[in-house]
Amino acid sequence: MKKIGFPLSRFTFSFLFSLLLFIQTNAQINPFQYTIEKRAVGTNGAVSTAHPIASQVGIEILKKGGNAFDASIATQLALAVVYPGAGNLGGGGFLVAHTEKGKSIAIDYREMAPGKASRNMYLDKDGNPQMNLSQHGHLASGVPGTIAGLFASLPYAKLPFKELIQPAIDLAAKGFSITAAEASSLNGNKAAFEKYNTKPTAFVKHENWKAGDTLVQTELAATLTRIREEGMKGFYEGETARLLVEEMQRGGGMISLDDLKNYKAVVRNAVVFDYKGYTVIGMPMPSSGGLLMEQMMKMIEDKEIGKMGFHSKEAVQLMTEVERRAYADRSEFMGDQDFVKVPIKTLSSAAYLKERMKDFVPGQATPSESVSPGKVNPESEETTHLSVADQYGNVVSVTTTLNGGYGSKTVVGGAGFLMNNEMDDFSVKPGVANMYGAVGKEANAIQAGKRMLSSMTPTVVLKNKQPYLVVGTPGGTTIPTSVFQTLVNILEFGQSPLDAVNNPKFHHQWLPDQLMVEKEFPTAVKEDLEKMGYKVVNRGQIGRTEVIQLNWKGKKLINIEAIADKRGDDHASAY
Ligand code: GLY
Question: Is the CB of 536 inside a 6 Å radius of any atom of ligand 1?
């Protein structure tokens, strides 16, 4: 009898193993035919993300016996394939969770300034900021944190990592059908991909992309396979690290092999505060999200906003003034607290927040300080959020990002993943606006190894100590105000999560001193606010919020409702 040699049998085994995983994990997923659902209700688990395939991947992992942490890991990896504008391996993020054992968790896997980064690296010899360098191409990237973040959350998961990453590998290797929105977004970025890449990428083809085309990412599949086989080292060391550093060297970037090897996700103490009996759990520095949320919620807590009514001129004015004050504090005081002292105790104290609202005059705009207003760049705010809940009582809220749409637009040659342009979230020069129009100062100045200030606001709300809401959104600096409005809509105005997510939103960030509103925002309220002295400006959509609401009767979970924002291809799944 002919003996099969070792290399062949190992190959055959590995192939059969992969095939088995593919059949198991993808039993319910057809990446070439899928529909978009905006609301789903179940009793066992729910996932809401920016893409139908990613939400389905999460649900299938729950059905296989995984918990919310398993589903969030598999979903983030799937998003890196099917939602390349923001899902990522080359970016970073934050995870806020509450476990079935009652523990609150915050994991920081924000990108980090490379070892060679320095305070004035984006200034020319005359001290003028070169925002093109902080926003596009190789020099715009911080050291990526996403893979470290996934492994930091793995101890809370139940299934082997190999099973969690397999759907992403299959989607990258075999491809999936893109939506009309994705086709248009890839076409819109074609010139940038051509400009900022040193090697051909899967995102550029000769003809225009159209809905239903298949996107195959062979190099990305190989990178994911290295991560499956070698764990974190499959990204931060070896072949992937070599390809990433070579890409940096070809394009004038700074990230080194040491930067990658030394990157660590950090488990931090979550921001936890009480709002009228609800417990709100959020992300601490280097995200401003949790603290901004605490400041804004606490500044309205004694104002009986529920009685003012949804979108009443009184309620919108109050929330606008609260947003203005919180964002002014963000600009002055907030940054990576491993490097700078952030006066968190003061900024969140009742006495300070009371004082902060002393000059609030109902019916009258408080002008922002006369600092040159930041210019708001129309660059898309392509972060992405996913909310997950399981039947055991675990809830996971993750916001992850490349910063702008497709990040720096640079794909790592041979490795197939996009790099972030997160360095622009630092304050490149005091008082100079970043791409979101946000200005910062010393607290958020660039320093080697420091993490840039974020606005990402993954949030969990408990009611009677049980998980009640899982919320978050993309949107740059509009993130905290979107989450704030979503919570106020549900907790104060009694709205369903569907209405709370889809109703028109508004945003004030201190500078520029203008109230930005979505097109559908009621005209009569806009006019009332203009009479009070506000400069009201129409802008594009604000956020793509994913909410999960868990409904309990005593200690029994009645159902789990998942909502996906109407503003994109976002998809809610439950079972
Ligand atoms: N890059 C967007 C944020 O972190 O706020």
Answer: no
